[in-house]
Amino acid sequence: MTDVRTQSSTTNKVLGYPLNVWYVAAWDKEVTRKPMSRKVAGRPLALYRTEGGKAVALADACWHRLAPLSMGKTLAKDQIQCPYHGIVYNSAGRCVSMPAQETINPSATVPSFPVVERHRYVWVWLGDPTKADPDWFRTCTSWTPRNGQEMAKPSTPRATSSWCWTTSWT
Ligand code: FES
To answer: Which of 97, 123, 135, 165 has the highest count of CB atoms within 10 angstroms of its CB?
Structure first.
């Protein structure tokens, strides 16, 4: 079975943004059980939280007729329902229910993107999911000098601090 997270590669090349990098998508408090839309690196996303509180990022376009999932509603567990005809997806972007259908078309998926929460932000990774390293954030807070420049390390990191880190762009 194909990993639905890798199906967006063609679209990503067209958009022309570096993709193998973590992008801030929202403040952590912005992402709730009510789906919201956010465009990151030219890519419309639907962000929401599962019942367990995990942040999820799916492409904001239903597999069926491209209706924005961000206008839908969350259901039990990790599911989100399209507002147009009611297809239900799980947090991996796989369809788990089609109204009036006994079987589910296996191609009924939407891209799902890796998400981490660090420093009060929700970060998304739009590129190759196998390269999305959530431990990268530990590196970026180590204040390693870059290009021979010594960086001043604040005694208490704050939301307004200047952060210096080496990007993971490839
Ligand atoms: S457009 Fe989403 S179910 Fe039809």
So the answer is: 123
pLDDT digits (tens, 9 = 90+) for 87-120: 999 999 999 999 999 999 999 999 999 999 999 9
Q: Which residues line ligand 1 (CB under 6 A)?
A: 62, 64-65, 67, 82, 84-87
In the chain, alpha helices (H) = 9-15, 136-140
**Which whole-number Å values give the CA distances from 165 to 23, 113, 136, 141, in the listed order?**
13, 22, 10, 7
The enclosing domain of 49 has a CATH number of 2.102.10.10
Q: Measured from the CA of 65, which atom of ligand 1 is nearest? A: 1
Shortest-distance Cα residue to atom 1 of ligand 1: 65
Higher pLDDT, 113 or 9: 113
Closest CA to ligand 1's atom 4:
85
pTM (whole model) above 0.90: no
In a domain, 141, yes or no: no
